[in-house]
Amino acid sequence: MRLLVVRSEAELYVKGRASIIIKRENRFDEKHLRDIDSVLIIGSSVKISSSLPPVLSSFNIPLAIVAKNSVSIMINPIVTQYNNYRSLQYRLEPIRGLEIALEYIKSRVNGMVNILKNRKLEIPNFPDPPTPGSEPKVFEQRIRSWESQTSGALWNSMTRLIKPSILEELRNKYEFNGRRPRHRDPFNKTLSIMYAVLYSLGTKALLTAGLDPTSGFLHRTKYNIPLTFDYTEMFKPVAIEATIDMVNEGLPDLNEDGELNKDGVNLAIKNLYGYLTLQHKDTKKSIYQQIFLKAFSLAKFLEGDLKKEKLTIVWNRTQYRSHNKVK
């Protein structure tokens, strides 16, 4: 995996048309574009040259920027040649697109259920997923309602996986109350950093498969990469479990802006990558590999060459080989 992470005081600019230069004080690091899958910028103190985004786009490399309360990913989908897969994506009936989005959400839900099962916690009650109807707007409303109810129930149980002493500190010091993306506490900030990495890799995977990340099924155009947000739902349980394990070893520190400090960001990314590179006991594939493989599965499904059951993967830690703890 080749994620380039840049934070703190730094400048990025292009050398020729094939390399990035990272300047930190008097030190210069050169990275060849062929060795990079995605660029992740954290914070507002990193300067980039105006030539960087278009050059990255020409290599189909997403540029993700994690600011205080948001994640922005810059891509230029026009750079990737308009192809048959995109034609099928744009012409897909809304109901079918919503069906695909629902499969991704169901995979995320099942992955979260597996986390609870594997750790011997009771599974909360939640309604069955909706079935497709003839009216897309009604089906979409039912998906959103089901997702909201189900996620709320699962997150209430997920917090019980945090060690009591850590959970008490989160509540007393940071007013922690479960998953709240914009809340300034070490748990949510850690998970948001891990999600940002998934969004970057998911965008790269969709572009590689010839799909348009800016044209989603359930998420809409108010997001700059709605298909990425749809697609990465199934991989979120990996980040959730990695976050729980990380904070249980001790809460990372926040800086004065309420964001993870440099060491916390490094540790979050290392922990996530530890999980993404785990090898499946049977298929020998890692989650990182599946992020790219399932993007091609979506393209093949749109073409009619793949069954819907092959679109997704459900996270289950017990099916993967063990790894050494990240220090």
Automatic annotation (TrEMBL):
Record-linked Pfam families: Cas_Cas1
CC cofactor: Mg(2+); Mn(2+)
The keyword Magnesium is annotated on this UniProt entry: yes
EC numbers: 3.1.-.-
Annotated InterPro entries: Cas1, CRISPR-assoc_Cas1, CRISPR-assoc_Cas1_C
Keyword Zinc-finger: no
Amino-acid positions noted as binding Mn(2+) in the UniProt annotation, renumbered to this chain: 147, 219, 233
A single MF term (Gene Ontology): metal ion binding
GO annotation (BP), single: defense response to virus
Swiss-Prot/TrEMBL keywords: Antiviral defense, DNA-binding, Endonuclease, Hydrolase, Magnesium, Manganese, Metal-binding, Nuclease
Superkingdom as given in the UniProt entry: Archaea
The protein's assembly and partners: Homodimer, forms a heterotetramer with a Cas2 homodimer.
Similarity comment text for this entry: Belongs to the CRISPR-associated endonuclease Cas1 family.
NCBIfam families: cas1 (TIGR00287)
Function: CRISPR (clustered regularly interspaced short palindromic repeat), is an adaptive immune system that provides protection against mobile genetic elements (viruses, transposable elements and conjugative plasmids). CRISPR clusters contain spacers, sequences complementary to antecedent mobile elements, and target invading nucleic acids. CRISPR clusters are transcribed and processed into CRISPR RNA (crRNA). Acts as a dsDNA endonuclease. Involved in the integration of spacer DNA into the CRISPR cassette.
Protein name: CRISPR-associated endonuclease Cas1
Native species: Fervidicoccus fontis
Lineage: Archaea, Thermoproteota, Thermoprotei, Fervidicoccales, Fervidicoccaceae
Underlying gene: cas1
